[in-house]
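FW: tagging you since you asked about this chain on Friday. Here's the raw sequence from the shared folder, copied in full. Didn't touch anything.
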Amino acid sequence: MAESRRSRFGLAVWLPVAWIVFVLGCALSADWWAMPEADYMDFLSQGAPPGAVGEVPLGGGDELAAYTYWLGTDTLGRDILTRLFHGARVSLTLGLIAPIIGLLVGGSLGMAAGYYRGWLESTAIAVTDTILAFPAIVLLLAIVFYIGGSLFNLTLTLGFLTVPAFYRVARANTLTYAEREFVTAAKAMGASDASILLREILPNVFMAMLVYALLIVALLIVVEGVLSFLGLSVPNAPSWGGMIAEGKEYLDEYPRLSFVPAFVMFLTVLSFNLLGDRLRRFTDARESNI
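HL: got it, structure written out here
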């Protein structure tokens, strides 16, 4: 048993978890490090290579101090490492908060539809199919044009677009567990529908939704990069996708401007995918032993 558990939670789990925790830590503590502002331009160090030394204001003051550009600067003299730290906030906010919205709304609706069936299920299917049929890029363009492409607006919009996917996962799993013996026994003992949904079905359905949420997180981090190329990402805020888009015009002379944030995004997306896949295998193994 111990050996089986170690095989499930080996390096394929701990390395992705360590990287995700590291990236989250960098995003949360970006303002605490002795680094220049994300948009500070050192015009004497434009396109500086990694390891170059410049003089920048640190700690929010105006006094200049020596600073090492560990990853170099972009063509405007902005520190790449600083922008990676602050860019993680935008990318991870979109990648983490939007799936939570979809999980809560879509998961609740899917469980209710799978348990009660009838008109609720038919209506939910019609609504979610309509959302899936509507071009997402058109909705994003409308949001940016009429309301503004703020981080809050984009997060809500992407969360809304993930509702149908979570609804389908929750409904399919609820249909399976609603006919199981423990649910029938709970009904026979007089348990209310709310109690059955929360105590009997939710613990079994939640794991499947969590696995799917990890895959959606990875997908939305990539989506943020695509939105940056289309000019639909968060304006006036560094993000990994924005850094990749800004560096595409200088690939011949400064390939690191795009490749460094692309590599960080790759590792983050890969970590969420590996974690989700390993969690799915663990869930399948647990269900096979029931």
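FW: Residues 1-6 have pLDDT under 50 and may be disordered.
HL: agreed, and The chain is about 70% helix and 5% strand.
FW: great, closing this out.
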